[in-house]
Design brief:
Elements lengths: L9 H16 L5 E4 L6 E4 L6 E4 L1 E4 L8 E5 L8 H13 L4 E5 L6 H9 L3 E5 L1 H6 L2 H8 L8 H12 L3 H6 L6 H13 L3 H13 L3 H13 L5 H10 L3 H16 L15 H4 L1
Parallel strand pairs: 5-6, 6-7
Antiparallel strand pairs: 1-4, 2-3, 4-5
Length: 276
């Protein structure tokens, strides 16, 4: 049933949005506040120096500045550009990076264009869309390396720092979808994150699944973080012919381009016939 057919009060409308965001973000340890039990959420603006009333504000643990704010507009007409401008100004005042503006009757074309052109991340949608939207994947797109949105990956890093064995570190990642961990690892590799490089090496050497090993090796090769010792260990333990062929193809390709992989093993590389 669409928003236009739901007869609810503005307070109920705001409360529904609040509860949806609490359901999504609170399991990740994030603080979600809004008007609840007669108490409003108010945060002091950095420019206005005035406490701004917010329908919903989401903060990281130990922080009082929200990274996300949401507002539910229960208007009888489509939201115009002036309301989008006002919301963007409020976002800037409370130093929020992400905004959600919800309205049952939609938005004018000018309002949609203004939201799209904003230098801040702003999503405009109906209440039905907001209540069904998957907000954690959205947050992961905006903050790809923020560990708070990747609980299992953060747990693997904790295990790594505690000196846990490879099996325990790998077990923390078993339920993570491939798209999530690849995006997370790629973003971290761009910053040469040493913890992620170490975890990838552990996966490449020790994981029981050849798909996991292959993708870990691929990311190490593509980011030029596969060192000689790790490469030698992988080759000495690897039994999958496709993975071995991939490694040797990387070596031959690097030789052709004066790369580094050609000197990884200190011995002649096998030919395709020898591998067979």
């Amino acid at each position: 049933m669409g928003d236009r057919k739901i007869e609810i009060t503005p307070n109920t409308y705001e409360y529904a949005l609040l509860q949806r965001l609490k359901h999504e973000f609170e399991p990740y340890g994030l603080k979600v506040c809004g008007t609840e039990n007669g108490k409003q959420c108010r945060i002091k603006g950095r420019f206005s120096l005035k406490k701004r009333q917010l329908d919903v504000a989401v903060c990281r643990p130990e922080e009082t500045t929200p990274f996300l704010v949401a507002d539910a507009k229960r208007h009888a007409r489509p939201i115009d550009v002036k309301h989008v401008e006002a919301f963007l100004g409020m976002m800037d005042d409370v130093n929020a990076e992400v905004g959600i503006l919800v309205a049952p009757m939609g938005f004018s074309k000018a309002a949609e264009r203004r939201a799209k052109a904003a230098h801040l991340e702003l999503k405009i949608m109906s209440l039905d869309e907001a209540l069904q939207y998957r907000w954690i994947p959205f947050a992961r797109e905006i903050y790809p390396t923020d560990p708070i949105f990747h609980l299992e990956l953060s747990k693997a890093k904790e295990y790594l720092h505690s000196g846990a064995g490879a099996e325990i570190i790998i077990s923390a990642l078993e339920d993570v979808f491939f798209e999530e961990w690849e995006a997370f690892f790629l973003a971290c590799l761009n910053n040469r994150n040493e913890d992620i490089i170490r975890i990838l090496k552990i996966i490449a050497i020790n994981h029981s699944d050849d798909g996991w090993r292959f993708n870990a090796i691929r990311l190490l090769c593509e980011s030029d973080t596969l060192d000689k010792q790790t490469a030698q260990t992988i080759v000495s333990k690897e039994y999958d012919p496709d993975i071995l062929e991939f490694i040797y193809e990387m070596i031959r390709g690097s030789d052709a381009n004066d790369g580094n992989y050609g000197v990884l093993f200190g011995e002649a590389q096998p030919t395709q016939k020898e591998m067979e």
